[in-house]
């Protein structure tokens, strides 16, 4: 199932004192869930990004982006990583959606 980690206080500390940001690491070690869960855990990559208008903007909130390495975005914008003979496989593209713009 899903796991939720509240890192609000940690992020607030990092924003107030950027030198205190030593990062955060998550280790996924599935002991149940079968083959698929083990494969996903082995291929998980975490990345963080900021999308501020300015560094002092109140909207400067960190965003956690999670990719599986199998479908990680490529440097080539039109490159898709196909497996085997299947050429109609969907490709993942990095997108950003601001739900405030959608009035959520």
Protein model, in words:
- This protein has helices spanning 8-16, 34-42; strands at 44-50, 62-68.
- It has one domain.
- The chain has 104 residues and is of the alpha+beta class.
- Helices cover 17% and strands 13% of the residues.
- Strands 1-2 form a two-stranded antiparallel sheet.
- The two termini are 25 Å apart.
- The mean pLDDT is 62.
- It comes from Heliocidaris tuberculata.
- Residues 68-104 form the TGF-beta family profile domain.
- Its main location: secreted.
- This is Antivin.
- GO terms for molecular function: cytokine activity; growth factor activity.
Q: What's this, in brief?
A:
This is Antivin. With 104 residues, this protein is an alpha+beta fold.
Low-confidence segments: none
**Compute the gyration radius: what is it?**
17 Å
Strand order of the largest sheet: 1-2
- What class, by secondary structure content? alpha+beta
Mass-distribution shape: extended
- Total of helices: 2
H/E element order: HHEE
Task: Give descriptors for this structure.
104 residues; alpha+beta; two-stranded antiparallel ribbon; cytokine activity; secreted; TGF-beta-rel; Antivin; growth factor activity
Task: Note the topology.
Blueprint: H1 8-16, H2 34-42, E1 44-50, E2 62-68
Antiparallel strand pairs: 1-2
């Amino acid at each position: 199932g899903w796991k939720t980690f509240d890192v609000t206080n940690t992020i607030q500390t990092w924003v107030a004192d950027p030198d205190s940001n030593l990062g955060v690491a998550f280790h996924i070690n599935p002991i149940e869930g079968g083959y698929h869960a083990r494969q996903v855990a082995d291929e998980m990559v975490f990345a963080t990004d900021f999308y501020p208008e300015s560094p002092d903007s109140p909207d400067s909130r960190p965003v956690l982006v999670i990719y599986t390495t199998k479908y990680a975005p490529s440097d080539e914008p039109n490159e898709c990583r196909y497996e085997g003979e299947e050429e109609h496989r969907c490709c993942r593209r990095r997108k950003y959606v601001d739900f405030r713009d959608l009035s959520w």
